[in-house]
Design goal:
mainly alpha; about 75% helix; single chain; about 260 residues
């Protein structure tokens, strides 16, 4: 079932914010010696652009794709996710919220997963005082996690579905960590060993530096996040998916209210 309808305009808005998000993450590899963006202006421009575009996409989705029942479901799951996240607090990579984004996106579709990821990270930041320039990057990364879960093949069911979701959760946990590394790696000066970003340097050389930086500084945390996703999806996936799908059938998303 689909709790948030991705119409043509909504899909275009999601595609545009995704392109902007990729630019915000990967700008160090796109910047040449004579690029319009430089290491001082690029982060500022993208940090201002990304929240504005993300807010515009959420408004576009809410204006035509969210009914009252979907808003209620979104509020409940976002509140649960925001409450779960501080339990792990990222200690040793133990992120207790991403499995819920995967299961929510799987149960209610890619549009719902996109909004759930963004609102859950935003609510968690308000709850824990984690609001800062890193928040838009966390929100778009989490939104992609929920979106991707909703785009997985719908025909897979039963035990194979849990295996698919666990594998996706592990991959999403790793990629999320690497994307967040990209958001601050260009400013991690003095790490030594040829791991720092070289402005205007060759793309392959900077990519090599980034891979070494991520493996050296955060691979353990990323593996912890991936393992947490696998365990939580394996343990709770059947029950949580069943509960969400039953609630979705009773809500009859998209049907006119009585």
């Amino acid at each position: 079932m689909t709790a948030v309808a991705l119409r043509a305009r909504t899909g275009l808005a999601v595609a545009l914010i995704s392109v902007a998000g990729l630019l915000a993450f990967f700008w160090p590899f796109l910047m040449g010696r004579h690029s319009v963006l430089d290491p001082t202006s690029a982060p500022l421009v993208l940090a201002l652009l990304l929240p504005a575009l993300l807010a515009d996409v959420l408004v576009e989705i809410a204006s035509g794709g969210l009914d009252v029942k979907a808003v209620a479901m979104l509020g409940v799951l976002a509140a649960v996710g925001a409450a779960l996240r501080p339990l792990g607090a990222g200690t040793a990579g133990l992120e207790t919220v991403f499995f819920l984004l995967v299961l929510g996106g799987r149960a209610f579709g890619p549009g719902f997963g996109f909004v759930l990821g963004a609102t859950t990270l935003f609510g968690s930041a308000l709850l824990t005082g984690g609001v800062g320039p890193w928040l838009p990057f966390q929100m778009i990364g989490a939104a992609w996690v929920g979106l991707g879960a909703g785009l997985l093949p719908r025909s897979v069911r039963g035990r194979a579905e849990l295996v698919l979701l666990a594998a996706y959760g592990a991959l999403a946990g790793l990629l999320y960590g690497w994307l967040l590394n990209l958001s601050f790696w260009p400013f991690a000066t003095g790490v030594g060993g040829g791991l720092s970003f070289a402005p205007g340097g060759p793309v392959l050389a900077n990519l090599h530096r980034f891979v070494l930086y991520s493996v050296t500084t955060s691979l353990g945390w990323d593996l912890g996040r991936a393992l947490t996703d696998v365990v939580l999806i394996a343990v709770t996936g059947r029950a949580v998916l069943g509960a969400l799908r039953r609630a979705g059938r009773r809500a009859a998303f998209g049907a006119p209210a009585a």
